[in-house]
Design a protein that fits this description.
- By secondary structure, the chain is mainly beta.
- Strands 1, 3, 4, 6, 10 and 12 form a 6-stranded antiparallel sheet that branches.
- The radius of gyration is 20 Å and the shape is globular.
- The protein folds into 3 domains: about 50-220, Jelly Rolls (Sandwich), CATH 2.60.120; about 225-285, no CATH class; about 290-345, no CATH class.
- A hairpin with a 2-residue loop joins β25 (about 305-310) and β26 (about 315).
- α1 (about 15-20) packs across α2.
- The protein contains 2 helices and 28 strands.
């Protein structure tokens, strides 16, 4: 039947949707239900339901509806992995030109036995948010909100288009859509679409399209979880280090990204070893971590504590009062308004 649930592949944590069905008899009004409790417990413990929709490393599965006006390429990127999807307004775009992504199943085509009437569909009701890294590599490109709009096609029906924010120059930011708040139907998703309404000659780059159940600060709650770097094999209890491309075994000398012993799971079950893949479906856990995306005011340095600056921005702790710090920066920002990874922590008494 339309919207039939299909497996979503390897996932570390059972989805809230699956768990809620088990405890449906316990559900009640006003958030007094098993789903609400589980969501809060997952947030507190740093667990999330996260699926990388597309790793944006290749143009496979992308379709241009107006070739030569709004075009796509695998552009060189500097955020996650080697490439980012480069969208170019080769001609003037009036809001009718779009790029369609069909490979929304862990960077691959939806399995052919999903959906009904020959349609390839998958159920996204196990996640509430969708987002991705975005940047312009030329100052002024896509610098007005709404010059790029994003939507999905669900059971043949396009959902409400959502504006991409105005893109500041020379930074990477995480763009996020609350699919529930936008009233998107997502029980039989077939594709994503990106519409352009922009002058000719402008580029926008997107990276690591991801859907997830719990959002924290600027994007997905990664918490105690991070994907294993593609091609890297980790063994249970290896000391691991964080990198934006994935977890790696700690080696050589200590670095800022070192996290501690890793616990490995595949399909929810513990395993002795695991190897990361390009689709970022294999994850490791380090208990006690709380990884999240935050926005810098332009002064954050990898390894330094970060404190409140203003308007949800963080800045480097510049005094000996370490108690002001709320998180440790895992990256050095490139400029003000840059979104980077932090590990949430509250140090003890002031130095």
């Amino acid at each position: 039947m339309s919207g039939e649930f299909i497996p979503v592949g390897n996932q570390v944590v059972p989805s809230l949707d699956q768990l809620a069905q088990v405890g449906m008899g316990m559900d009640g009004p006003g958030g007094k239900d098993m789903r609400s409790l589980l969501r809060q417990m997952m947030l507190a413990s740093g667990l999330n339901t996260i699926h990388v929709v597309n790793n944006t490393q290749a143009v496979t599965g992308w379709v241009e509806n107006n070739d030569g006006v709004f075009d796509i390429a695998a552009g060189a990127g500097d955020r996650v992995e080697t490439n980012e999807i480069q969208m170019t307004s080769t001609g003037t775009c009036d809001g009718t030109q779009f790029l369609q992504l069909d490979n929304i199943y862990q960077s691959a085509a939806i399995p052919p036995d999903a959906g009904s009437a020959g349609r390839k569909q998958m159920d996204w009701t196990d996640t509430r948010y969708i987002g991705f890294w975005v940047n312009n590599q030329t100052n002024g490109d896509f610098s007005t909100a709404g010059e790029l709009k994003i939507t999905i096609v669900n059971n043949g029906e396009e959902q409400t288009q959502v504006n991409l924010q105005a893109q500041p120059n020379d930074v990477h930011q995480w763009f996020e859509i609350d699919m529930v708040a936008e009233d998107w139907d997502r029980n039989a998703v077939e594709s994503m679409r990106f519409y352009a309404n922009v002058a000719s000659g402008e580029d926008i780059f997107i990276n690591e399209i991801t859907r997830y159940e719990i959002s924290y600060d600027r994007g997905p709650l990664y918490g105690c979880m991070w994907y294993i770097s593609s091609g890297v094999t980790l063994t249970e209890n290896d000391l691991v280090g964080w990198e934006i491309d994935g977890l790696v075994a700690s080696s050589g000398s200590a670095v800022v990204g070192d996290l501690g012993p890793v616990k490995l799971f595949q399909h929810g079950l513990p395993v002795a070893s695991a190897t990361g893949d390009a689709a970022h479906t294999v994850w490791g856990m380090v208990p006690g971590l709380f990884l999240f995306i935050g926005r810098s005011n332009g002064s954050c340095t990898a390894g330094d504590l970060a404190e409140w600056a203003s308007a949800r921005h963080l800045t480097d702790v510049s005094t000996t009062t370490t108690g002001l710090g709320v998180a440790v920066a895992l990256e050095t920002d490139g400029a003000a308004e840059d979104d980077i990874l932090f590990n949430l922590i509250k140090p003890g008494a002031s130095a």
